[in-house]
Backbone:
């Protein structure tokens, strides 16, 4: 995971490249707890994190949100009692970019911090 | 809305009463911007709030979360770039309680603050 953690998100445009099948095969094992999901035909990386109450869930959501702001790349964060579900994808390319794997790794790091 | 805003959530148990159809007819107009939705046969109050960026959306999510903690009644909060979607329902009764209308009114107040 170290490699992804050291990377910064790059600015993304509509013609930026989606990750290829080969890149997914390389990157997904690094963030293996994330599911490759699909919504409205858009692939996403999604993971749920468990907490023992609402306040801890909310604090985690805030820390992921602040990391997102720092990188200029933003997820969907679903905050509930005892659970936070994060989804990363790249709106501009309607798919997955290397940025999403970088942010998944940074999210895992925040959870284990 | 003033009446609901002055109320506090009461502790809820599995045998607490759901709001009746008549109570919904009375309470829903007070928080008219909330949709009565249903998920897995559980009625919910849901409203989306718009923002001009991610940071404002995240700040609103935090303030709703803090209000929820203060009342001991917790919503689902979906935070995205420029949008926050809040859903209120009462897990213990798998339905809507007066508490949910109280919290919808308090959420509206936070948005207009």
Residues:
């Amino acid at each position: 995971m170290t490699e992804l953690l050291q990377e910064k998100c790059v600015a993304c445009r509509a013609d930026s490249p989606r990750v290829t099948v080969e890149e997914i095969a390389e990157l997904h094992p690094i963030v293996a707890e994330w599911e490759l999901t699909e919504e409205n035909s858009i692939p996403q990386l999604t993971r749920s994190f468990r907490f023992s109450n609402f306040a801890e869930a909310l604090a985690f959501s805030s820390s992921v949100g602040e990391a997102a702001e720092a990188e200029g790349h933003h997820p969907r964060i679903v905050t509930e009692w005892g659970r936070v579900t994060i989804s990363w994808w790249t709106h501009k390319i309607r798919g997955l970019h290397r940025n999403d794997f970088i942010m998944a790794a940074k999210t895992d790091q925040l959870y284990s911090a």
